[in-house]
Amino acid sequence: MVWVRWVSVLFFSMLVLFSLPGCVSSVVAVRESEALFDLFVDVEPKEARIMIDDVLYGTARGTLEVPLRVPAGTKRVTIVSEGYYPFRTTLEYVQPGEVYTLKTALIRSEF
Questions:
Q1: pLDDT-flagged residues of the chain (< 50)
Q2: 99 in a structural domain
Q3: Residue 17 within a domain
Q4: In angstroms, rounded to a whole number, what is the distance separating the alpha carbons of residues 64 and 106?
């Protein structure tokens, strides 16, 4: 009788788990390419590093011709280069498939 009770509890637990919203049975797959936006960057100096949400995406060289593919949503963009003040901005509520162009020139630091 103990094993019947254990099996009943296990079955009930699985039934509750798979009926909750957000579980595997109710997940809708979104292709990765549909959840991205394009970010063109035109910045001087070209060796400046581009960070988005504290993740290094590379240098600015070539990003005016070929965009960065970035996950959609609100993004914190930081552009830094040795001997220059950092540039920071926030792109808010960016939707998948949108195209942004960010143009700036970093200001030389006196330090």
A1: 1-30
A2: yes
A3: no
A4: 16
